[in-house]
Design the sequence.
């Protein structure tokens, strides 16, 4: 049985690897752009695509998903950590991505990293919910809303397929963390003219403060 010290070291590893601001560094090094001040201000692949180009977003998303998320979980599993500890490791990786110690505790939404975690933890459920996401995007062209729907369905499908309780609770924790990050929006001040309840709905469901998605993702000069 793995001792608690080993588990703690893996959890710390997950946070510090998850916290590496790949999107920020990619935009900074390749184009001299601080993506905190451009587009949505989000430090993730979607804002890299909006700020400096879609071709740069693909490797960022893959690093976030496979290195921060999936590889970290595989390390935890290879070291023999049980399901509860694996869930904490995945949670730590997503916390690192969303609240990075390297860059004033801001970060990305964590969807790609959480997807990588869940691909190892509950691969069958991710495939099902991923299919729902893709179908929704094709029909509606609203990716942010369907990301939220697909992620919210993961704990339910895990429960439906009889996953261990610790795995189901880990899925709930990850989905709750993604929702919190949407609502927190890197601590940016909300537009004064938007009622709090409307802001809550827009952030939670559509992952933006304004009604128009194009206006949201192409904002400029936000300040850091």
Sequence:
């Amino acid at each position: 049985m793995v001792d608690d010290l080993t588990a703690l070291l893996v959890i710390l590893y997950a946070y510090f690897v998850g916290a590496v601001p790949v999107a920020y560094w990619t935009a900074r090094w390749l184009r001299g752009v601080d993506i905190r001040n451009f587009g949505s201000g989000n430090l993730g692949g979607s804002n890299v695509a909006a700020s400096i180009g879609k071709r740069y977003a693909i490797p960022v998303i893959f690093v976030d998903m496979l290195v921060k998320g999936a590889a970290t979980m595989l390390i935890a599993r290879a070291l023999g950590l049980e399901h509860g500890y694996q869930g904490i490791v995945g949670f730590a990786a997503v916390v690192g991505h969303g609240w990075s110690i390297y860059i004033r505790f801001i970060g990305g939404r964590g969807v790609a990293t959480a997807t990588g975690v869940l691909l190892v933890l509950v691969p069958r459920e991710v495939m099902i919910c991923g299919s729902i996401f893709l179908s929704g995007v094709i029909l509606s062209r609203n990716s942010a809303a369907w990301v939220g729907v697909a992620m919210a369905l993961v704990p339910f499908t895990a429960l439906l397929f009889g996953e261990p309780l610790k795995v189901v609770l880990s899925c709930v924790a990850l989905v709750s963390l993604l929702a919190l990050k949407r609502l927190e929006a890197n601590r940016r001040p909300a537009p004064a003219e938007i009622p709090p309840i409307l802001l809550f709905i827009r952030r939670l469901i559509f992952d933006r403060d304004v009604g128009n998605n194009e206006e949201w993702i192409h904002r400029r000069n936000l300040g850091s």
